[in-house]
Amino acid sequence: MSDDIKFVLDAETVEQLKSYSELLKKDTNTILKEALQQYFETTEKNLLEKSLNEENAMTNLDFDEFWSDVDI
């Protein structure tokens, strides 16, 4: 199994990558790695929030709403 992934960047993205590389004095690979790390962190946070919201959807009644229709 190969660990290589082939992807294509459009010309505008390549130019921006080169410009930021020069401006920040960072290697393009470092910029891409940092950008992907930020993307993964943001995506993980969003997925966790979505999961919590779905979990809380089953328990969104307050105390009075929950007990209002219960006969004891």
List the topology elements.
Blueprint: H1 11-24, H2 28-57, H3 63-67
Description of the structure:
There is one protein chain. The protein has 72 residues and is an all-alpha fold. The protein has a domain at 27-56. 68% of the residues lie in helices and 0% in strands. It is built from three helices and no strands. It has helices at 11-24, 28-57, 63-67. 0% of the residues are buried. The model has no long low-confidence stretch (mean pLDDT 87).
The global form is elongated
**Whole-Å distance between the termini?**
63 Å
Instruction: Find the count of extended strands (DSSP E, 2+ residues).
Output: 0
Percent of residues in helices comes to 55-70%
Unreliable segments of 5+ consecutive residues: none
Query: What is the string of helix and strand elements?
Result: HHH
Which class of secondary structure composition applies to the elements?
mainly alpha
CA-based gyration radius: 23 Å
Strand content: under 5%
Q: What can be said about the biggest beta sheet?
A: none
Q: Summarize model confidence as the mean pLDDT.
A: 87
Number of contiguous helices: 3
